[in-house]
Structure to design on (408 residues):
DNA sequence: CGTACTTTTGAATCGCATCAAATCTGGTGG
DNA sequence: CCACCAGATTTGATGCGATTCAAAAGTACG
């Protein structure tokens, strides 16, 4: 990671109180770097401005299971009061990531009700997003999961694939082969189009 | 629902500030009642003391998808700042449920930092639980999902089935037939036992 | 130019959904 | 108390769809 001092991302700046913005450290991470690992003691909370980060855990059989895939937003919110990370965070595309010291966040939450309120709002949104993901994973067919994903996560049926379909397959809980075939089928049926780095839903 | 004035559940009493406890209304709900429906304006937040409640949404094909299944704890936390419920809440076993007026909660959060902190802790736990559920739903085999469930939700490998395996099947995102067969297989293999209203993991 | 990774296609297999039907269960009213 | 009903449980047969394994072709990057 290479530390730099670019401007703080607007969304993060609006969430944090003024005096905390100065404590942020923004860095560039390369593909393949590890943001943190399960078992480590959390000291920073991370905000992804650009790029792509995967939260993963190893199943008992040793395969990696994708808990979350973030291209933008806070990672590890729930580590605020935790002694240990419960998953690994892997950078899978060159990313700009801002770290905020957790103890500073905790102190600010205790003394700044307006910040607390914004933080609760952020957690509420996260709970809703996770419920949507559970709903998606409850669908049995790859096609249903993909369309549900595009409906809920896409902007006007448009969704950018920064690092290819493979990482999306992980988030949808299917093999990449199945997802490639599904996308190809939907293209043939004229339901989906695949323009340069984007997935675009056509009808509906 | 029949209103009554039993003692407030300890966990809820510890979460809420003293002046809010008086505003709680505890009622008995029968199997089949609807706690709330998607689209309604949220006015109460509900805490399940006993029984069983399902949060469901209808997929585009019209089948009900289980978002959450709660036997104990707060339902609809995320509705705090929402104008509408985004799912249905169905009581599937006779339950004791406490309602707390949402506007009172919002007011208390704005003025009571200690309560805010407890509320954030509750949301953090919810985020973690949901991440575990996503992890579980990412497993492909019924057996893996069931064992993961018992590991993460059970107490010492023991899990009470208040209203049978069928509602559990919904939460695991599988058909009840598949779950019955899986339980029966695991019993034959000596990995699981099914004692009066309980699922009990034997080894490990 | 070579290496690593993604994308793509193929074929075989397996597990679960689905449909069907029988049995069991708790609770209801007669 | 018993007949009856709705729902839960159980078992069976079938087909589909995804996983799995394999391998080839495309692509980015040093």
């Amino acid at each position: 990671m290479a530390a730099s001092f670019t401007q703080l991302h607007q969304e993060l700046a609006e969430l944090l109180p003024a005096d905390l913005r100065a404590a942020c450290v923004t860095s560039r991470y390369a593909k393949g770097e590890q943001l943190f690992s399960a078992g480590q003691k959390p000291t920073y909370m991370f905000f992804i401005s650009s790029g792509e980060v995967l939260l993963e855990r190893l199943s008992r059989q040793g395969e990696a299971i994708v808990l979350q895939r973030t291209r933008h937003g806070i990672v590890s919110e729930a580590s605020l009061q935790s002694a240990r990370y419960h998953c690994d965070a892997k950078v899978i595309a060159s990313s700009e990531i801002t770290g905020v010291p957790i103890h500073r966040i905790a102190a600010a939450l205790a003394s700044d009700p307006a910040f607390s309120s914004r933080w609760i709002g952020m957690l509420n949104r996260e709970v809703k997003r996770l419920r949507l993901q559970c709903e998606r994973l409850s669908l049995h067919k790859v096609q249903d999961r993909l369309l549900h994903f595009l409906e809920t996560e896409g902007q006007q049926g448009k969704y950018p694939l920064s690092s290819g379909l493979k990482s999306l397959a992980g988030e949808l809980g299917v093999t990449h082969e199945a997802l490639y075939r599904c996308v190809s089928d939907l293209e043939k049926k004229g339901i989906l189009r695949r323009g340069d780095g984007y997935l675009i839903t056509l009808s509906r």
User: Anything to note?
Assistant: Residues 140, 163-166, 176-177, 180-181, 184 of chain A lie near DNA strand C (CB under 10 Å from a C1').
